[in-house]
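re: the backbone from monday

yeah here it is again, tokenized this time
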């Protein structure tokens, strides 16, 4: 069973070199990147993180959303839910999650992923199952060479809705408005798109604050 992809036709950002140069100026030292990098190394790096993947891992319904940073808007390239029926064994679900994400990464070529931060589950079994899905997803992203950032759910809601305890429906409606989607995205896909949007906002703020974000 394949996840249903939805996309719309289609830069804000800062390069690592620019970040290092500005940081060096703020700290009063010469930037290491002042020395030109070899042509092969420069060609292998994207100029900016223009395509961002948001990911909300879950064994039965992993949400994903891909946005592209354009001027002046942010555009949704794809979003959907990687669904696994309840009668599927865990191993089949994990393989399906991994393969679908490989397809998404191959098609849309994101360079960075924002994944929902860990939460404290009262049920140990639930925590283990969530960890399995998260691990399968992160392994795919790691092998693809994506930079992975972790954002707490409360911070995502604050960035999108302005309220850290906002309901899922409120997040989905704001995501729809921000990305000008013709339909309200499904709950898991909306959460993933919200993660990607929050990461894009973090990059914009970091252009001025020069603060590093936590990577995993």
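seq for it, each position gets an aa:
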């Amino acid at each position: 069973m394949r996840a249903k992809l939805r996309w719309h036709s289609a830069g804000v950002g800062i390069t690592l070199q620019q970040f290092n140069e500005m940081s060096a100026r703020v700290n009063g030292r010469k930037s290491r990147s002042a020395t030109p990098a070899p042509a092969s190394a420069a060609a292998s790096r994207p100029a900016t993180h223009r395509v961002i993947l948001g990911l909300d891992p879950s064994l039965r319904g992993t949400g994903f959303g891909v946005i592209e940073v354009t001027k002046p808007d942010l555009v949704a390239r794809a979003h959907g839910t990687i669904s696994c029926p309840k009668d599927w064994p865990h191993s089949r679900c994990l393989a399906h999650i991994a393969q679908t994400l490989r397809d998404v990464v191959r098609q849309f070529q994101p360079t960075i992923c924002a994944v929902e931060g860990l939460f404290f589950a009262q049920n140990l079994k639930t925590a283990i199952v969530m960890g399995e899905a998260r691990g399968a997803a992160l392994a795919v992203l790691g092998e693809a060479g994506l930079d992975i950032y972790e954002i707490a759910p409360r911070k995502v809601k604050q960035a999108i809705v302005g309220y850290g305890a906002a309901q899922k429906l409120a997040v989905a409606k704001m995501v729809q408005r921000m990305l000008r989607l013709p339909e309200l995205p499904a709950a898991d896909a909306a959460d993933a798109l919200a993660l990607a949007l929050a990461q894009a906002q973090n990059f914009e703020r970091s252009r001025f604050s020069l603060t590093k974000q936590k990577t995993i």
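Residues 158 and 164 are 5 Å apart (CA to CA). The chain has a mean pLDDT of 80.
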